[in-house]
């Protein structure tokens, strides 16, 4: 493919929203040793894509402009790097794209100064990794690098790391597969690693609340939580209540009603874990709804979340709030793809757009009212 051009959508600076996206012809990227080149069939947009453009990780990501956004992709392998043994040309795959930015020598101190996103990385790493696994600072930095995703999905071709790419069976469409990486892996991580839910249903029964249950993460979280034999309460808008029930939720609250705003379970449940995908809910609302050892898993932490997290940790509080930063693992993505194949998990598609209308998909994501996933198809 060397020297050939492809259609891609990129932005040249922070900010600008959908109007900041530009359609361009750029060279098809070449896979390095541990990468595959994928001819894209579908990509999905996540709120994080638009937040990166808005500057949430400024000035670290995107490190360089122009930047081709979007991390979640599915397509066909058309070329493999010399170190790739598990894929060959013609394989259908799904992948979460990793950073193409070299941050290997990036000083941890600089990362510390870079806002909430990296403060969150730091809290997570220092608390859960360095303390539990006794990592040295160099490995902490490496750990940060490993969890920073890259882009390249709004294009006809992209390169993907072999270890973040998994096979896509014929029973799973490209669009269904592309919806999975960030959103379903986040739901999976929140439930299994944070809430301790066993997805084979073998663990103790837990009460779970999923906020924004109609969104990308939420609709996977409800389905996975039900696989884990939990009692699920969910919040969503009035128009999506039947939809969220159809995903398996036991109780559904309209977030615009007083009970919904108070997160109050109709049957009086106290939640062992809250997979929290919205913003603007104070600790004083969560606290009375949590069970004795209940936990809020904050997907969109802000400074107030971090203060409460630190305070609860300092005071050894049993009820707590913890920020989650996705640590995407190929084996978990493989597991989720298999669940879709077996009909145990579904990707609900809000809307599909051709690559030529990528800015409309972008605007839809920024709007924040998707039901399920937003897909772009080259
Ligand atoms: N920490 C991480 O690693 C990580 C990973 C993935 C995602 N996230 C974050 O998690 C959040 C959710 O992501 P997503 O992909 O699920 O977003 P999304 O698909 O854009 O969510 C949209 C849905 O949220 C619903 N919603 C909005 N406000 C709500 C409220 N107050 N109560 C209940 N539902 C509400 C909307 O319903 P209506 O249309 O009815 O309003 C809509 O269906 C985002 O902020 C994202 O950045 C974080």
Largest sheet: 7 strands, mixed
Architecture of the largest domain in CATH?
A: Alpha-Beta Complex
CATH class of the largest domain: Alpha Beta
Beta-strand level of the residues, as a percent range? 15-25%
Molecular shape: globular
Please identify which CATH superfamily of the largest domain we are dealing with. Answer: Medium-chain alcohol dehydrogenases, catalytic domain
Please tell me how large the radius of gyration is: 20 Å
Uncertain residue segments: 100-118, 120-149
Write the layout of secondary structure elements.
Blueprint: E1 5-11, E2 21-27, E3 35-45, H1 47-54, E4 72-80, E5 92-96, H2 108-112, H3 115-133, H4 137-147, E6 157-161, E7 165-167, H5 174-178, H6 181-194, E8 207-210, H7 216-227, E9 231-236, H8 241-246, E10 251-254, H9 258-261, E11 271-276, H10 283-286, E12 290-298, H11 303-314, E13 320-323, H12 330-341, E14 349-354, H13 358-367, E15 373-377
Helix pairs in contact: 3-4, 6-7
The structure holds NADP nicotinamide-adenine-dinucleotide phosphate.
């Amino acid at each position: 493919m060397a020297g050939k051009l492809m259609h891609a959508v990129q932005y040249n600076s922070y900010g600008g929203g959908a109007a900041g996206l530009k359609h361009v012809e750029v060279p098809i990227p070449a896979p390095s040793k541990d990468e595959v080149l994928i001819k894209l069939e579908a990509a999905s947009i996540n709120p994080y894509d638009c937040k990166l453009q808005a500057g949430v990780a400024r000035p670290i990501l995107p490190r360089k402009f122009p930047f081709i956004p979007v991390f979640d992709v599915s397509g066909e392998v058309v070329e493999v790097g010399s170190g790739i043994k598990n894929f060959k040309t013609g394989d259908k795959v799904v992948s979460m794209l990793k950073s193409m930015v070299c941050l290997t020598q990036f000083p941890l101190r600089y990362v510390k100064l870079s806002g909430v996103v990296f403060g969150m990385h730091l809290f997570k790493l220092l608390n859960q990794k360095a303390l539990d696994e006794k990592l040295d600072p160099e490995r902490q930095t490496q750990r940060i690098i490993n969890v920073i995703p890259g882009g390249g999905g709004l294009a006809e071709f992209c390169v993907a790391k072999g270890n973040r790419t998994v096979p896509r069976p014929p029973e799973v469409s490209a669009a269904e597969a592309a919806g999975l990486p960030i959103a379903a892996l986040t739901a999976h991580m929140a439930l299994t690693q944070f809430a301790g839910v066993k997805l084979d249903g073998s663990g103790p029964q837990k009460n779970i609340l999923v906020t924004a249950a109609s969104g990308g993460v939420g609709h996977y979280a409800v389905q996975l939580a039900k696989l884990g034999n939990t009692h699920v309460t969910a919040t969503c808008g009035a128009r999506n209540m039947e939809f969220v029930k159809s995903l398996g939720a036991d109780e559904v609250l309209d977030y615009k009603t007083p009970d919904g705003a108070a997160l109050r379970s109709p049957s009086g449940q106290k939640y062992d874990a809250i997979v929290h995908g919205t913003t603007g809910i104070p600790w004083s609302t969560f606290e009375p709804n949590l069970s004795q050892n209940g936990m809020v898993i904050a997907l969109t932490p802000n400074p107030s979340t971090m203060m409460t997290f630190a305070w609860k940790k300092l005071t050894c509080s049993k009820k707590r709030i913890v920020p989650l930063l996705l640590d995407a693992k190929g084996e978990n993505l493989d597991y989720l793809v298999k669940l879709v194949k077996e009909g145990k998990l579904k990707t609900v598609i809000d809307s599909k757009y051709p690559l030529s209308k990528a800015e409309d998909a972008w605007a839809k994501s920024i709007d924040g009212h998707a039901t399920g996933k937003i897909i772009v198809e080259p």
